[in-house]
Amino acid sequence: MARGWSQWYLYTFVSHAAIRSVHAKVRALTPRTSQHDLAKLLRRINQITHGWAAYFQHAVAQRTFDSLDHFTWCRLIRMLTVRHRWKWRDIRRRYVMPNGQWQPITAGGIEWNRTAAIAITRHRYRGNTISNPWVPGTT
């Protein structure tokens, strides 16, 4: 039972294998020497990460989503750095606004959307809707 609650809740967590699988998919799409169109690449990365996040949005996963965003951002920046032969100052010049905030990575009208922006609904009370085969009278 959760502390301060009078009802039981089910907490689910993201497995390490699931995290490794999404990392492998992002890694496969963003090799350093990739010459794929950036707009198509961003669209595909958005599809993969947001589909994965939609599946795990009911888990205790906010930090996992943040770490996935960080991993994806680093892979994209590393790929763009090699592709355009940019230094760190070139990246900052292109992706940091004058007020110091980072702009999202965009290409051809497609924007890389953060996974951590997906709302997480953790506490789902399921009540008596689930029957228990070991307790008589609940089936």
TrEMBL record:
Domain Group II intron maturase-specific: 20-95
Superkingdom classification of source: Bacteria
InterPro entries documented for this protein: Mat_intron_G2
Pfam families for this protein: GIIM
Name under which the protein is recorded: Group II intron maturase
